[in-house]
Design goal:
Blueprint lengths: L3 E5 L10 H9 L3 E3 L17 H14 L5 E6 L2 H11 L4 E7 L16 H12 L4 E2 L3 H8 L5 H8 L5 E2 L1 H4 L14 E7 L23 E5 L5 H4 L1 H12 L2
Parallel strand pairs: 1-2, 1-3, 3-4, 4-7, 7-8
Antiparallel strand pairs: 5-6
């Protein structure tokens, strides 16, 4: 059965990096969109844009394309964005899928769920870079894309773009906590992901905030979209189906 998927990228990414995943989902008969959020578009003013603008850009995309019965997938920081979007237009969403993603409580920002060393690093980088942050390559290589060879790790890193730091520091405001929302929710866990240290795991530390949810697991790093997009598409489909 054909479903409609909207794949929401994480920090430092654009929708373009999810297109290889989308192509495999389309080959399986689905309709797939990969928007780029406000803050990660060419020419965006990264000194002022934050989570509110990113979430509104996703809501606008859903409305402008009149998308309904959507399987809305958020990767990493994208979990913050889809959490707000479903709060605004719940009637358009059939299921939420969090792929190694942040799951906020109302009033939390991304930094509230991140390791303190990351916050200290990003505070310092943002202060000297117009309130934008970039992930240092050594952290990317070892913690985010540890299942790639050196050439793929470098070529993937070269596709990243600076992230508005306000997307990490601005709290999300939800009318209803995610656990209380009646729609279907899934958590897709890549088990070799060390972008969050395993002492502060994605699952169950963050996934359990969804209340009732489906867990789908597979091997891979935080950046499976680069290292095995076909497997990721298969697992997103498992997580997104009714």
């Amino acid at each position: 059965m054909a479903d409609t998927y909207v794949l929401v990228h994480g920090a430092w990414h654009t929708g373009e990096q999810l297109e290889p995943v989308a192509s495999h989902l389309r080959a399986r008969g689905h309709v797939v969109h990969c928007p780029t959020l406000a803050g990660n578009r060419p020419g965006d003013d990264r000194s002022v844009l934050g989570l509110s603008e990113a979430a509104q850009s996703l809501v606008d995309f859903l409305v402008q394309h009149d998308l309904r019965d959507v399987r809305l997938m958020g990767h990493s920081y994208g979990g913050m964005v889809i959490s707000k979007a479903v709060d605004v237009v719940p009637e358009r969403i059939a299921r939420l899928v969090y792929w190694n993603a942040f799951v906020p409580l109302s009033g939390e920002c991304l930094n509230d769920m991140a390791p303190p060393p990351y916050k200290a690093l990003f505070d310092a980088v943002a202060a000297g870079n117009g309130n934008a942050v970039m992930l240092p390559y050594p952290i990317w290589r070892e913690a985010f894309i540890n299942d790639a060879d050196a050439a793929l790790a470098r070529s993937a890193y070269n596709q990243l773009n600076p992230q508005p730091y306000r997307t990490f520091t601005e709290p999300v405001r939800l009318q209803t906590e995610l656990a209380a929302k009646p729609l279907g929710k899934s958590y897709l866990l890549c088990t070799e992901d060390t972008a969050m240290p395993h002492s502060m795991p994605w699952h169950p530390r963050l996934s359990e905030r969804l209340g009732l949810f489906r867990l789908v697991a597979c091997p891979g790093s935080h950046e499976l979209c680069f290292t095995n997009p076909e497997l990721l598409a298969q697992k997103i489909e498992e997580a997104g189906r009714d």
